[in-house]
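check these tokens.
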Amino acid sequence: MTDKKTSISIIDLEIEKIARSACSSIDIESVSDESTKRIFKSGLDWIANFITIPHPELGRRGAVCPFVGPSHCEGSLLFCSWDVKKLSFEIFLSVLERLSSLYHRLSPGMFKTRRFSICIFLSGLKEEQYSKYIDEAHSMVKPVFMDAGLMIGEFHPLSVTEGVHSKIFRPMRSSQPAFVVRYMALHDAMFIDRDGSPAEVRLRELLNYRFWMEEALPKDDISRIEKRIEDLKVAIATRN
């Protein structure tokens, strides 16, 4: 019982640390801690020099992410910092799952917009930990966020995740490890039901996407999604 209570208190403490570090991406000069300010400035450089501009390997026109620029400019992008050096993977995952609740906690008032996003920059990870703490952890917690109508993106310098429009592009590479949390949007259809994911995962993603996006989806898209859902159900039942 003591260990469980201790774990809960550690998780709460980590969430509070992340919450206290929150700062609008347009107001990082107000950050008093120089180490945190350097992290945020590096994040701004990544956004300015990669995320919000075109890339020759992207496979389509426009910025790598066309939504980040407007979010930043209107003050609805929050930066947070999180030192994970001393955390076990189990505790790390528990805190990561709680970021969905933290997102809603930080979003009231001036930030209540569909473009509101939080970018959590991680420190304390070694390069050999990126695969487990970023890529693997993302796969494990993504369903929790989709259940809540949110999406979480995973970024780090060694990411090998391929682009939707180009197999040679690596859109999830960043100057430092990070997770980005935002509302689910119509374009997220590109990021679910992808080859390589288990049928059960793809089914859950589609069910969540239909639930949260149904009112905004054209009827033809709803019909296509429903057919895909039924196909996956049959495939899972046949296999079992």
About this structure: The two ends are 38 Å apart (CA to CA). The helical segments are 2-21, 34-51, 68-73, 89-106, 130-147, 199-213, 219-239.
